[in-house]
Automatic annotation (TrEMBL):
Pfam families: PIG-U
Main localization of the protein described in the UniProt heading: endoplasmic reticulum
InterPro entries per the UniProt record, alphabetical: PIG-U (IPR009600)
Biological source species: Solanum lycopersicum
Protein name per Swiss-Prot or TrEMBL: GPI transamidase subunit PIG-U
Keywords in alphabetical order: Endoplasmic reticulum, GPI-anchor biosynthesis, Membrane, Transmembrane, Transmembrane helix
Length: 420
């Protein structure tokens, strides 16, 4: 019986390396056949902030001893509103990346990032399994393991990539997980409880005192490292921009450009169409409304998902991807890659097949609508804007359903722990 179960588990294991090799081949195709695919001009991939052509423009201006954010004016009144001003709106440190665009360094970096995400997910999955077994809920893990059969299908592999997950089991410190998704507050409470137990009972494990679960040292080192890295980056940017207006000019041309939504060229978002239609008198008001909308979501989500910082970061990235002025498919790829970290918790998420079909449909219709509008002239901006609206709606449904599934999973765990 055990041998049959092992064979069955082997059959249901995801063919990770098969999909990894397929992804590498697909990426090489995108690198070596850019002229045929013409991805550099696709609004779904290239935005005013991420455009490689604009990066080349900034690089050319730098080589000509000019500021990479130098403004220019076009005499053609038809395109003046779209292209007037500076072309490049990225960090000045990225100008050196242009020399590496034809190399495989970026390809290797993407592959290493994928391997790191997979390694992190496997570690989180081990913590999830061990914690369930320590609480006497090993059967729940066996049941959730049945969902790994989804990984054998293309749809399952598209959504999760590999069977990796982790869960914080409860708000109650007695059932708190000790893995990477546990918050410092919960670990600190467990540390205080263990300290009290050790002082009262004097527990000893194998002749040694029990190891503490919480330490402020990694937290402090993390913030110190973030501060040093941020300061180092700002110093480099300041040195680069010392002859071009200083670091204030960089902030104005990068973050200021994003916040004011000056470029109304089409993209897969919805703000470009809205600000193209809104009256100039109300423009500042709606800019405040759209940007503050993100701020209003931070605190409620942090309160409700305070026991799940990793999943909270995923939700924040998804919301920013939906509401940012210049989105691209790269923004969605970032948070969809992290969705695999919560595979067990989101196994019962509803509308997964509907969302998969919706994303595929939008990916196919968006180039068609753009071609009908821009090149053939048989459509209008509403055609392409409709695909952007559908894309945003599918992302909203994904966020809502994933949060709902996560909360239901936590509620289920709490009930099972309370009954045992």
């Amino acid at each position: 019986m055990k041998e049959e179960e092992e064979k069955k588990n082997m059959k249901t294991k995801p063919h990770f390396w098969r999909w990894a090799v397929a992804s590498m081949i697909f990426r090489l195709v995108l690198i070596y056949f850019p002229k045929n695919l013409n991805l550099a001009t696709r609004p779904e991939v290239s935005t005013p902030v991420t455009s490689l052509r604009r990066l080349a423009e900034g690089y050319w201006l730098t080589q000509s001893s000019m500021s990479p954010y130098a403004e220019f004016h076009l005499s053609d009144a038809l395109i003046l509103n779209v292209l007037e001003g500076s072309m490049y709106h990225g960090s000045p440190l990225l100008l050196s990346v242009l020399e590496l665009k034809d190399s495989l360094i970026i390809f290797y970096a993407d592959f290493i990032s994928a391997m790191l995400i997979r390694a992190t997910g496997l570690k989180l999955r081990m913590a999830y399994c061990e914690r369930l077994k320590s609480l006497g809920l090993g059967k729940l893990f066996e049941i959730s393991g049945e969902y790994s059969a989804l990984m054998s299908s293309p749809i399952g592999s598209f959504w999760v990539g590999c069977s990796i997950s982790f869960v914080s089991l409860s708000d109650n410190p007695d059932y708190t997980c000790n893995g990477p998704d546990a918050t410092p507050r919960k670990l600190f409470l467990m540390y205080k409880k263990d300290e009290a137990d050790n002082s009262s009972k004097g527990r000893v494990v194998n002749g040694l005192s029990e190891q503490k679960n919480f330490s402020w040292r990694p937290v402090g080192l993390f913030f110190v490292w973030v501060f040093i890295w941020t300061l180092y980056t700002l110093v480099l940017c300041g040195i680069f921009m010392r002859n071009y207006g200083g670091i204030s000019e960089m902030f104005n041309r990068t973050y200021g450009f994003i916040l004011t939504v000056k470029d109304l060229s089409p993209n897969i978002g919805v703000l470009w169409y809205f600000f193209a239609e809104v009256f100039e008198f109300f423009r500042d008001f709606f800019l405040i409304v759209f940007h503050v909308n993100i701020l209003f979501m931070i605190l409620p989500l942090a309160i409700r998902l305070k026991h799940r910082p990793c999943f909270l970061a995923f939700v924040y990235m998804a919301i920013c991807s939906i509401l940012k002025p210049y989105p691209s498919v790269g923004d969605s790829a970032l948070y969809l890659a992290l969705l695999a970290l919560f595979f067990n918790e989101l196994a019962e998420m509803q509308f997964s097949f509907f969302l998969f079909c919706g994303f595929v449909g939008v990916s196919l219709l968006s180039p068609v609508m753009h071609n009908l509008w821009i090149w053939r002239g048989t459509g209008n901006a509403n055609f392409y804007f409709a695909t952007g609206m559908a894309y945003a709606c599918f992302q909203i449904i994904l966020v809502v359903e994933s949060v709902s599934a996560m909360l239901n999973h936590d509620r289920k765990i709490r009930k099972l722990v309370a009954t045992t």
